[in-house]
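[Amino acid chain]
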Amino acid sequence: MAQDAPDISDMSFEEALKALQQVVRQLEDGEVPLDQSITLYERGEKLRAACQARLDAAQARIEAIVLDAGGKPGGTKSFDGPE
C-alpha cells in the first residue's frame, strides 16, 4: 500500500485531506488487518500533520484590515496580531 501511495509533499491540501478522510474510513470500517491498520494510521498521522501545517501557513498569511479613527482603512495587521 505505501509503495503506490503518492508522496504527501507532492499533494495539494485538498488531495491530502481527501486521502486522510479515506484512511479514516478504512480504519473505522475495521475490515483492515492489524499490520495494515498500523501502516494506515501512520500515513493518516502524516497526512493530518501536512494538512495542519498548510492550514497554519494559510492562517499566518491572512491579514485583517485596520480602520483609522475616521473608519477608513488605515493599514493591515497580522491575523493573530495584538489588538
In short: The CA atoms of residues 60 and 79 lie 7 Å apart. The longest helix spans residues 34-61.
